[in-house]
Design goal:
By secondary structure, this protein is mainly alpha-helical. The chain is built from 11 helices and no strands. It has one domain.
Length: 258
């Protein structure tokens, strides 16, 4: 475990040197200015709060997902392309530990980005409303769990595919997983989809992670109270899918001839 943490620290520092955090800082500045900008054109404090939260949380969500897909899908292919994977695997380190180290580094960058941006939005909102908008962190935590699952799946794809294909497949999983099954079946039926398409859509929803359960923005903004164990259940669901994806990635990578 110590070797995995040391290697993940090296990969984390490598991603920092790539200056991916500059995009996070830029978006943080936008989130600082967003509530004041929206307030200037709003019709009241209530409208200002809801619009600012909605737009800000949407920005954080899609930026975090995009960043996670980009980092996770390119880590292993870049190592193989630069041939830096060979001296690492020549050490007493198995491929499972190598994959886990990459994943931990990616999740660390993702977590820093998500919660830094949540802090920026919370501070900027609180400066104008004179109240701490801590429910922002609940929504962002759920988005982070969703991004963590997508990152693990992208890493699994990247063990046998290039970075572009892995990112594309990860994006498809995110889009299909985020779409409620009932809505997908309704859309296919409304467009005259065949029974085969409906069966395929049902099978896809059954095999892919249900990412729609992590969408907490609307319930939080509308003031709905979450069950006391909901976040714990979300965390357990995310950990299960992450563990399965890392295990699947290890099986695929062990079969690859480097």
């Amino acid at each position: 475990m110590t070797a995995v943490l040391r290697l993940s620290r090296l990969y984390f520092l490598g991603k920092v040197r790539q200056q991916v955090h500059l995009a996070t800082l830029f978006l943080g500045v936008i989130l600082f200015m967003l509530p004041a900008y929206v307030n200037a054109f709003s019709l009241g404090v209530n409208a200002f709060e809801k619009i600012s939260k909605d737009f800000g949380l949407t920005l954080i969500h899609y930026f975090g997902i995009g960043l996670s897909i980009l980092l996770a899908s390119s880590s292993i292919p870049n190592d193989i392309e630069k041939r830096s994977v060979y001296p690492i695997l020549a050490r007493p380190l198995n491929r499972s530990q190598y994959i886990t180290a990459h994943y931990l580094a990616t999740v660390a960058i993702s977590a820093m980005s998500f919660f830094f941006l949540a802090g920026c939005l919370c501070l900027s909102m609180s400066a104008l409303t004179k109240a701490w908008e801590l429910n922002v962190f609940t929504v962002v935590f759920a988005s982070f769990l969703q991004a963590a699952i997508v990152s693990a799946i992208c890493i699994a794809f990247s063990t046998f595919a290039g970075s572009s294909l892995a990112a594309t497949l990860g994006t498809v999983v995110f889009l299909l997983g985020s779409l409620p099954g009932a809505l997908m079946r309704f859309f296919l039926a409304g467009k005259g989809g065949s029974n085969l398409m409906l069966i395929v859509a049902t099978l896809l929803k059954a095999t892919l992670p249900n990412l729609s359960i992590f969408a907490l923005k609307e319930p939080i903004l509308s003031g709905q109270a979450l069950p006391s164990n909901y976040l714990g259940s979300l965390s357990a669901y995310a950990i299960g899918w992450i563990a399965f994806s890392i295990l699947f990635a290890t099986v695929l990578f062990n079969r690859r001839d480097l």
